[in-house]
């Protein structure tokens, strides 16, 4: 509910969303909190908006600290593996950048944030995972941790679905820009 990246729930004051939520309930699905523990169901859309503008992780987390001397951002690189010092300590990463394999070391900590699928993949490529699975693929075992790569879950949001709906008059919701709404954004950031 708090933190640098704002989460703004859909205000829910338009009819189409309510119709889809009711349709989901009619099919036996609950209306859920998309950030809650139960992920099977229908929900209102949540947005990352602050002061009427779209926010993203780089703007929320990186922009405030870009002047730090210990922060180096490399774009267009592919991490190949986490470099380990023994069984329990990550000390750097190996990555591919402009066709060359490079290494970078960390003095304090390595943060791995590659998503629900790529994070366990990088751990396994680094020798952390189920011993038999790693050996089967010729990866040197650093730490036998059978849970890596199991029970993968991610937030599934289906934003690309389209429906043809009859013209609705309610707040002109089918796409025309309303000058009053534009004025409200410019003057009140909402």
From TrEMBL:
Gene3D superfamilies: FAD/NAD(P)-binding domain
Recorded superkingdom: Eukaryota
Keywords carried by this UniProt record: FAD, Flavoprotein
InterPro entries tied to this protein: FAD/NAD-bd_sf, GMC_OxRdtase, GMC_OxRdtase_N
Cofactor: FAD
Example of a GO MF term: flavin adenine dinucleotide binding
Domain Glucose-methanol-choline oxidoreductase N-terminal positions: 115-129
Family: Belongs to the GMC oxidoreductase family.
Protein name as it appears in the record: Glucose-methanol-choline oxidoreductase N-terminal domain-containing protein
Native source species: Cherax quadricarinatus
Lineage: Eukaryota, Metazoa, Ecdysozoa, Arthropoda, Crustacea
């Amino acid at each position: 509910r708090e933190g640098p990246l704002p989460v703004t729930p859909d205000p829910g004051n338009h009819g189409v969303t309510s119709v889809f939520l009711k349709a989901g309930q009619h099919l036996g699905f609950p209306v859920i909190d998309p950030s809650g523990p139960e992920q099977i169901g229908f929900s209102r859309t949540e947005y990352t908006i602050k002061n009427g503008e779209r926010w993203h992780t780089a703007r929320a987390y990186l922009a405030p600290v870009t002047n730090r001397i210990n922060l180096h951002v490399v774009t267009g690189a592919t991490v190949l593996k986490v470099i380990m010092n023994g069984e329990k300590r990550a000390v750097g990463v190996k990555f591919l950048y402009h066709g060359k394999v490079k290494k970078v070391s960390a003095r304090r900590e390595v943060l791995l944030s590659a998503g629900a699928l790529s994070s366990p993949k990088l751990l396994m490529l680094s020798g952390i995972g189920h011993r038999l699975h790693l050996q089967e693929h010729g990866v040197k075992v650093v730490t036998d941790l059978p849970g890596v790569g199991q029970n993968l879950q991610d937030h599934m949001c289906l934003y690309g679905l389209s429906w043809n709906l009859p013209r609705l008059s309610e707040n002109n919701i089918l796409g025309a820009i309303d000058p009053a709404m534009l004025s409200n954004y410019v003057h009140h950031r909402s």
